[in-house]
Structure formats: structure tokens, C-alpha cells
Amino acid sequence: MDTKKCYVYAPLEQESRPSKRQRTSKSDPHAGLSERLKIYSKTWAEQEKKVQSTLEEADRATQGKIVDFVAANAPSEDVPRISIPTGLIVAGPSIASHGPYFERLGRGIRDVTNSSYVVLTSGESPNLKTFLKTLINKITSRVEDDDDEEDEIGRSVNSSVRGPKLLNFDLGHVQEWTSRNPVQSIVVAIQDSEAFNTAVLIEMVDLFYSWLDRLPFVLLFGIATSAESFEDRLLGKSLRYLDGQQFDVTQSDDIIEKLFRATIAHPDTEPHIGPNLCRRILERQKDHVQNTQDFVHGLKYAYMSHFYANHATIFLKYDAKFKDFSPDAFEAIRNLPSFRRYIEEKLEAGDTQSVRQLLSSDKFLFEVIEKLIVTVQNALSSLSIAAIVLTRIRESLGITPKVRLSNVWSRAASGELLDSPLLRETMLSIKKTPSDRLARLIDSLISLATEDFGLDAEQLQRELKTLVQDNAGSGPLRSQDDIRNESVRTTVVAQKVLLSKHKAALSEQDKAYSEIVARFYQRLESYFSSALVDPKTLLLYEILVYNLKSPHTEVFQPRPRLAIERALATPHDYLGCECCGNTPDRENTLAGTQPATAIVYQLYLESGAVINATDLWFAFHAIVSKDDEEDQSQTMYVMQMSTISNDTDHTRALFQRALAELKFLGLIKPSRKKADHVAKMMWKGL
Amino acid sequence: MTSAKRKRDDQGAEDTTPRKLRTQPAEDENDSLSELQVQTPSRRGRGLLEENGTPRSILKKSGLANEFNATPKSNRRLTFTTPTKAASKEASNGTPTIVRNADRSARRKSNRSLIDRTINGEDSEDAALGEEDALAQQILSEDEDGQTEERDKEADAQEAIPVPDTPSKRPRGRPKGTGKNQLAAKARKEREPSPPTELPAQEQYFWQNRPGGNKTSNNTLTSQTLLNHDEYFDTMQSYVDRHEPEKAFLLELHSRAYSQWIFELEEGFNICLYGYGSKRAITSDFTAHIYQHLLDQAPCKGTTKTPKIVVINGYTPNVTLKDVLATIASAIIPKGLKLPNQLSSLLTYILDSLARDPPPHPLLVVINSIDSANLRKSLVQSTLASLAAHPSINLLCTADTPNFPLLWDVGLRAQFRFLFHDATTFAPYSVEIDPVEIVNDLLGRSGRRIGGRDGIGFVLRSLPLNARALFRIIVTEQIKAAYMDDGDHDEDEAPTAMSQSKKNAPRAPAGSSQGVVYRRLFHKARDEFVCTSEVAFRTLLKEFHDHQMIESKKDAMGTERLLVPFRTEELQMLLEELLLENAF
After folding, report:
1. Can you state the subunit structure given in the record (chain B) (predicted)?
2. Which residues of chain B does A682 touch, with a Cβ-Cβ cutoff of 8 Å?
3. pLDDT of A255 above 80
4. Same domain as B415, residue B310
């Protein structure tokens, strides 16, 4: 089976029922797993719904425009078309999200207009002929291949009155198809216009133009750079054949932010994603992938890991009953660090009674957990709301620099926000806000708040309104802290400059307004200080927040090279054997007991850019045989009691294999500089 | 280049300018040595001429450097000097200079050289080198005085006289470049400082790639060292790795993750396993595991249906995309339907039929070594990606090379939806690679493929006389070429690298190191009446090609070269046999 190229797996007869691996430990590590996964799928389904709706909403505006454009450019009988309607879709540099975008766009166009829609990528169109073949196949949705085409097309075309048979890249096929399936327009979307050969694009435009009187083409170009650079690539003649309109797609940055708001920072989210993980996902987005799909995958994987690995997550079950849980689950809770802390606090407070009950009675613990989970959830969701409120305040006051919700939120979730300069700065600028802005701010907060969060904003709004209505002056009311109400006076007394601040006299209304601002400020402050708790101090934090970097990073951002280098440079890290153990004083030592490839690799590391295989062999031989001798004296391995020559043969074979493996891994290549030399290709750690 | 420049400088400004003074301590004798080595052969020749014509500049410099170096001088080489010069030197700036120079602290020295390097940008490389060697020498000379002799000899060989003051009339100690070079190389090797440890990776890269930094021995492997297939497999069969238990433990460790992997696959992710060691054991074990798992699941349970799993061994030579797609299609599409022939239409056909009538469980595609050379083409990878992106296909693949993620751009990566797992096994790549073949290839011994000399003799016996004669000519020519190249093995066909020009021996490169030029061979063959026309010549060569007795390659200039893939010793023996045979 190993040497077969490809095959459909079928179990060998003798191992048709491979013995299930025996679990030696009493407790099944997967106890309650299916239960937890059920909770997972339910939770994730909700999240996914949010994600989908957010994505659709994000596209909707531009997609609507594009669909309208396509619909508006449907050919009419009376007006002859003089150019191909062309949509330039500037979809941004995140090419990974272009595919899904054009797919969604296609759905939209097909739904709304009676059009045929095909997406073509550069991979499918190395030249015009292939491009046309693919196009024709896609439009007419024929499944045919070269052999059949003779009979099939030949027959169908020959039998028609059209005379000579058409070649398989003749747009006549499309014409024939449209005569059978009348469509409003044929939308051809070029997904990655940058990757197309310019000549192909130019020829394509030419050809489409010449068919325009018979086939209602509409072109859509996906553009990752800019419409200008796209135009630059085409000939003036081709440009004259096109009638372009530009559409800007929401950039993935913004979509990610929206997704973030809808998922991670959403108050109803459960479980929450912790700040570290969240930062990591965002950083990866920013630096590497820029792809909404990937963001969603990261989120999904976080949920998966949380429910898969954390036994205690079973308590996230909806309307759970006590009998649903096994004693193990309660043990899991009792082992949570936050729970231990909670117990210790209780002990310090002298509440031994309840401590005893918590530790011994599952029933009691269950009741406590039930209540606690709700409290903690509320705390977490008010944390999210507070982050949203803060962002909203900054948005409505127009405070620079702009800080995205994702940033604010992850700070809040790590418990850093309360004492942060960000919050202080925001609060200070509230004090200075004039009335018109404050009114807007309060309005937006009211619109935001799903429940009143202790601001009593509506009352403030009412008071503010009456105050503003009474305001006779032209400008907005200003609070006492507004800088315009301050002036700095410079006096020179005895050759010394004195600076003194003077408050301008406040009008009655300004005073009243200042009072409102002060109240608003106070309420907001107390709100923030109550809402912005450090989630890590919350009990059962581990259940409700998933904040582990470990599987996430490795799984999405692997470092395969590092893994291989480490395996070869310090095999002990993986093997954990006694023979090649690291001595404490040195990082890694070459030992003859190590796997042959590891030894050769370490020798390789020490050598220069060109390596003499002979010397490598001598060094290898010296290391290995020395060790063998030691071993033989200790008579540890019976195998090595064989003859010396056999040993050398083994060493030779091992060396050969090690060298071959290094070559296979791409670490060395043949060198022509000298006989029997190999060139080094990789430097460790680079 | 550098040397010419320096010469000019030296001639123009005497040692009086401070810049010069600073230069010289840094470039001690070794520097001048390395400088000599830097030159390309042609330059070298000119340089020699110049030196002989106007030798004073270089000599002065080296003299100063030598004085600076202050190592005890052996008197042996004094024969090269004219005593008068020595005397004049002693008189002019004799001992006080030496004492003063010897007193100079290492710190000042290094500072100077640093400054110097920044000032003379173009000399920097040499200076760096010189500094390195100077440092090494300093360290060495501290405790091993005995070893300095070698060095002194060499130094003297070059300078001929300790510190000449008015060196203009004195000839160079060593008239010939070759001898000096050999000496220099020898001395240098001994003086080579042990590689600095604890360098950061990038520094290590530059250190190891520094010009002239590569000094390797000329040892070659004896033909007994490398085993042939039979010996290799015989030996490996009796070999028991002492790490078997640990490796088994690693496998066991990975097997604990099976249910996690199944969960991940079920959630629509694909899995990629990486790490050192063959991962076939894991994939085959996991395949069996998931097969059982699927057999116990809803669609298959209680029925005769079996789960569909496709295994693709990417490492097998000449596995093609067509094979992959055909196997996948055979798993999901009922037999009897005609499949499209073209790859792209086959792919769309598969995807369409999966979309139209999705299988009860996603089809699992297991690819061993997705990064193998056979599957590295972008078309293959993009096709696999679009397969993997389909919700009805699950992909589990392994990747062996360290840099495999470079196969995929952001778009492909997004399509693949990979989760990566480190699955280091330390298992030998016993099926993936053929060590004997690879090593032979690596060391340019592909001739072993046809069974060595015996094989060639066998083939030749079955060929007509003129073919044998032609082969003899090739072998003779190749041996001749090898002899002409002997002594400077490090000659490359493409002397592009800096190190190359430095190492180059002054002797003009004898064409190239490898093989015989096609044209020349043809003429030779015609002269010996082996063949009359090029067509006949080609026909004869084709026979050799077919039996892999010769290889043809283009060198950097694009000239075709023919090469019998054996080393010189073997060629000699081969030639002997050929001549013997002809005698009969």
C-alpha cells in the first residue's frame, strides 16, 4: 500500500477490527464530551448566524450597487450598445476574501436579475483560447471533454442549419445557448484581474466588443490595487470599448471590526474570548492574512477548543438540571483556580460552613454555580457594553486618535482599561463638551443602551433639552471646564512673569449646563468603575472566558521549520530518552546515541557553507563508534555485541540515510565546487 | 581591484599619512596574504608584474605589517633576503618600532581596524578578514610558541625579510604565486579559529559565508564508504534503533489526538501534519481509526456501506494530478459513468457531483507528503485547495520539508482551511526516499547506478568496436581534464562567488573541472576515425546515454559537456580495463 500512488482505503482483512485502544486509567478523558460538543454546536450556530448576517450586511451596500449596475445595463432593443458595461470592483488587497465575495455577488446578481454569471480566475485562463473554452463551458454549463466534443458538439451543431461546426472556443456556442436560454445579460467576472496576462485581457475585451451586438456582455473586474493601475495596463483602444464604473468594496479591516463587534464584543456572547487570544487573532489578521474567513475560523477553533478540552464547560448547558452532571464535572469545578481562590476567601472570612458544603455537596455546589454563572455572565456582558460605550463616546466626541472597539475591548477584557490614560482622557474631554455635542452623545448612548446602565440618560436628555431650548445665545452652552471659558493672563510683577488662569464669568444657563455635565460625568465614572472589572478575578472565569494561546497559535501559525530544527538539534526534547539527555552545563551535546540524522545535522550546523562529505563521515563515525565502544563495555545492548565490521556497516548505512534525509528535507544540495562536497542550504534559526 | 587600489594609494602617499598608518596595523601579514588570494588569476598575473616592476609599495606595507606583528622570526628564510636590506632596515627604524608596536594593546588595534574599515569602505572585506586572522593569531601565539614557526615560515616566505625600510629594490620573497598560495592555504588552515559559538543565526550565516571562509579538506570518500542498494538494505534489516521505545511513545502520543482530529475534520477544518520523521505510520493508523469510527457512525452503521477514504502517496515518483482526481472520482462517482478526460473539467465534474448529491459523510482524502516534488506545481496545489475547500471533502495531509508553507499563498491557505499539528515521529523516511540513490546523486556518483565499472564493461562488450573506441576517448579526455584541474579542486565552472575568485589558484582555469566539451570530443573522435559524421557520433553517444554511462550537461557558458559519472581513480581503472580489452 505504501508504494501505490493513490487508492481507496480498504482495511486489511486481518485488521478489519483493530483492537480499540485500551484506556488504562479509570476515568475516561472524553467523559461528557458529546454533551459538551452539543453545547458547542448550539453556541457556535448562534455565533455563525451573527457572522453571516454581519458579512452580508457589510457587502450589501456595494453589492446592491453592482446588481443595480448590471440590471441597468441590460440591453434594450432601441439603443445599440457602443461599449461593454464594465464594473471595476476595488476589492482591496486581501485576495483571499475575493473568492467568497464574488460568490456572494453572483448569488445576488442571479437572484435579482435574469443574468448568467460566471467567475473566471487567472488560473483557468492562461491564454485566450483556454479562457474562452472555460467561459463557454461555464456559461453553457456543459460537462464535456475533448473526446466527446467531436460527437456532441459536432452533432448538435451539424444538425443545425448553421453550417460548419464550431470550434470549442467559439463564442457561437454561447450565442446558440442564449437563443435557447434568453438572458438579460451575460456577466463575466474576472476575479483577479491583476494576475491575468495583459494580452489576454486586451484580446478578451476586443473579442467581447466584436460580439457585443449579439451577446449582452457585462464585465466585472476584481481589482486588488486601484482602478487607475488597472486602466494603465489596458490599451487605449480597449479602454474605448469599455464603459466603466468603480465600486469600492468594504475593506476587510472594517469588516473584521464589524465582525468583532458582532461576535467577540457582543454582550450576549458566551463564552467570551479572552483578551490575549483576541489580540492574537487580530494581530494575525493585521499582519498576515487579512481575511474575514480566517477570522471566523479562528473564532470557531477557539470555541471548539474551549468545549473540547474544558470539562467544566458542561455547565454552560441551557436550563441544566442537577442530574445532568456527573460528579467528575463538579470535581472539575472544584479544581478551577478561581474556585479555589473563592474558597480561600471564604475561609478567610470564616465562612467554614458553606466551604464545607461547597466541597462536599455536589447539590449545593450546583446551586451556587447556577447562580454564579448568571452573575458572572452579567458582569462580562456589562464589561463588553462598557467597552462599546467608551468607543461610542469617543466616536461622538470625535476624539483623536481613533481607537477601534477591538482595541478598547481587549484592554477592557484584560482589566487594564479602568486606570488607562485612554479612559481618563475621554472622561476629561466629556467635562469640556459643549451642549450640542453632549446632546448628540447622550442620544447615541440612549440608542445604544439595550438596558439602562445607571446613567439615567433620558432624564439628563430631558433636562438638557429644556436648557438648550431656553438658550438665547447663538452658540452652544459651555461647561465650566471648557477651555473657552478660561483665559490665561500674563502679568509682569517685579520682573517676574505670572501666569494666572481666569474663569470667565458663567452665565446662568452655562452654570446649569455645567451642573448637568458634572452629573453626567459622575454617573459615567461610577458606571465605568463598576462595569470595568478585571474578569480574571471573577469566579468561574475559566468556564466563561477562553483565553488560551496554546493550541490556537500552533494550529494556525505553525513553525514547521523550527520544529524540524529542534527535533534534529535537540532530539532529546522530543524523544525524552535517557541516553541523549542534555547535560545541565551545556545546551545540547552531541552524543553517539542520538539518531543518526540528528548527529549529522548538528555536525552540519557546525560546518561552513560547503561541507566535505568525507570529513562529515569521519566525524560521524568518530562520534558513533566511540559511543558504541562505551556501550559495548557496558554491555547494555545485545545488538551491539555483533561483529565490529557489522557495526561499521551499520554506521555507514546510517550515515547514508542521514545524508539522504538532510537532502530530502532540503538542507543540503550537491555542490560542484569540490568533489564529494555538499552545500549548506539552511541556517538554523534564520 | 582592492589590491590595485591599495598599491596606488601606497605609491602616492607614503606611510606618513595617518590613514595609512592606521591601515597597516589592521592588515598584518595575513591580510596581504588574503589580498593575494582575492585576486582573480588574470589580475594576479598583472599584479605580479606590477609588483615586480614597482615592488616598493607592497613590500613596504608588508614590512610594516610584519614589524607590527612582532612574532619571533625564524632565520631560515633569510636566504631570500639580501643582507644589505636587512641592515638598512635595522638601522632606520629597528627595534624601537618593534617594541613600541608590541606594546600596543589589542584594544587599540581593534579600534584602529574598526575605524579603518569604516574609512576605507572597499577594503573592508579584506580588513575584516585580516582582523579575524590577526586576532586568532594573537590568541594562538600567546601560549603556543612552538606553532608559530609554521606561520613565520610563511610570513617570511612572503616578506622575505623582517621589516624592510626601503624595500624598493628588494624582490619578493616568493617569486611564484603558487607556492605561496599553497603555503598560505596550509598556514591558514592551521590558524583557522574554531567557529565562534553562540552566534545569532544571521551572524552565523554571514560568518560561514564570509569570503574565503570556507576551507574544507580535499578528502574524498572511498568507494567502500558508500553502500550500494543490496548492502544498504541488508544492513538496515539487521539494524535495531535504540530509540524504538521512544518512537513508539511518540506515536502513542499522537494517537491520543485522533479523536480531536476527527472532531476538527467534522467541523470542516482540514489537517496538516508536520515535523521531523516519516508520518506514514500516523496517517495509516489514523485512517484505520477513522474508518472504524465512520463505520460505527450513522450512515454506515448496520449497513453494508463502507466509509470512503482516499489515500494518496505524494512521495511516489510520477504520481500525477490525474491519478489523484481519478481516484477521488472513483470513490464518489458510481462506476460506469464516463469521466471527463481533461483535468479542469474532471475537477469541476467532481465538485459539481459532490455539490449535487453530497455523500453521507465527507470524503476523507489522506495525502502523504503533500509537499513532495511531484505535487509542488502550483496547478496541483490549487486543485487540491479547491478540493479541500469543498465541504464534502476532508483533507488530512502530511508535509515533510521545513518550508512547506511557502507552497501556499494567502488565497490557497484560506481555501485549505488547515489546522497544523506537530507530528514529529523520528521515524525514518524508508518509503519516501531511497537513501542510496539520493546520496549517490548528492555526491555526483550517479555512475554507480549502472553497476559500476563492471556494468560499463558489460555494456561495452556488446557494442561495436568504434563505440568502445569512442568511450575510451571520452574516458581518456576526462582523465586528462581532471589532471589539468588537479591542484585546484575548488575551481568552479562559474566563478561568480567572491570566495571563488579568492580561492582561485593563479593557474589559468583548465577549461572546467567536469567533463569533456562536446565539440572537442567530436573532433577527437573524427581524428581517430571512430566516426565520420556528427550524425554517426550522435548515434554512438545515444547508446551511452541510454545506458546512463555518460551524462551531458551545459556549463555556465552554455557549452555542452559530456561526462562519465565516475571519479578519477575509477576512471583510471576503467581505462586500464578498456585498454586491456582492446589489446585482445
Report:
1. Component of the origin recognition complex (ORC).
2. 402
3. yes
4. yes
**pLDDT above 70 coverage of chain B, percent:** 59
Residues of A in contact with B205 (CB under 8 A): 683, 686
- Chain A environment of B324 (Cβ under 8 Å): 6
Contacts of B245 (CB under 8 A, 6+ apart): none
Is the model's pLDDT at B529 over the cut of 90?
no
Which residues in chain B are contacts of A124 at CB distance < 8 A?
344
Tally of domains within chain B: 3
**Pick from A657, A123, A517: nearest CA to B412:** A123
Return d(Cα B309, Cα B287) in angstroms, integer. Answer: 8
> Considering only CA atoms, which of A569, A558, A617, A557 is closest in space to residue B204?
A569
Q: Which residue type, as a one-letter code, is found at position B339? A: L
Q: Mean pLDDT score of chain A, rounded to an integer?
A: 81
Q: Which residues pair with A670 in a beta bridge?
A: A678
Regarding whether B455 and B417 lie in a shared domain, the answer is no
Q: Is A151 on the interface with B (CB under 8 A)?
A: no
Interface predicted TM-score of the whole assembly (ipTM), two decimals: 0.84
- Cβ–Cβ under 8 Å, residues A561 and B274: no
Per-residue pLDDT reduced to its tens digit, A544-567: 888 888 888 889 989 999 999 999
Residue of B223, B229, B235 for testing the chain A interface, max A β-carbons within 10 Å: B235
What pLDDT was estimated at residue B402? 92
Residue B88: partners with Cβ closer than 8 Å, 6 or more residues away: B164, B165, B166
pLDDT at residue A583 in the model:
54
A2 has a pLDDT exceeding 80: no
Cell numbers given for A309: 478540552
d(CA A675, CA B443) in angstroms, rounded, equals 7
- pLDDT tens digits along A443-462: 888 877 655 566 677 777 88
Per residue in B371-430, pLDDT (tens digit) is: 998 899 888 998 999 899 999 999 999 999 999 999 998 888 888 999 999 999 999 998
Sequence letter at residue A336: L
* Least trusted range by pLDDT, from A523-537, A629-643, B266-280: A629-643
Asked whether the beta carbons of residue A613 and residue B443 sit closer than 8 angstroms, the reply is yes
Take residue A539 and report the three cell numbers written for it. 469566579
Hey, how many other C-beta atoms are within 10 angstroms of the C-beta on B256? Answer: 10
- Residue B84, pLDDT above cutoff 50: no
At B239-269, the pLDDT tens digits run: 888 888 899 999 999 999 999 999 999 999 9
Beta strands in B332-439 (DSSP E): 363-368, 393-398, 418-422
Task: State the residue range of the domain holding B562.
Answer: 451-583
Residues A661, B433: C-beta atoms closer than 8 Å: yes
Number of CB atoms found within 10 A of residue A397's CB: 17
Is the residue at B427 inside a domain? Answer: no
A615 contacts B217? CB cut-off 8 A: yes
Shared-domain flag, residues B204 and B265: no
Which helix (H) or strand (E) covers residue A649, if one does? helix A644-664
DSSP letter at B268 equals T
B490 vs B504: CA distance, rounded Å: 7
- A residues 521-580 near B, CB within 8 Å? 554-556, 558, 560-561, 563-565, 567-568, 571, 574-577, 579
**A63 has a pLDDT exceeding 60:** yes
Q: In this complex, is the C-beta atom of A673 within 8 Å of any C-beta atom belonging to chain B?
A: yes
pLDDT at B219: 82
Of the candidates B274, B341, B410, which has its C-beta nearest A146's C-beta?
A: B341
Instruction: Using the structure block, give the residue that is written with the C-alpha cell 593575494.
Output: B36
Structural domains of chain A, with CATH: 33-40+251-418+532-557 (no CATH), 73-250 (3.40.50.300), 447-529 (no CATH), 560-680 (no CATH)
> Average pLDDT of A126-138?
87
Q: Based on the domain organization, do B373 and B285 belong to the same domain?
A: yes
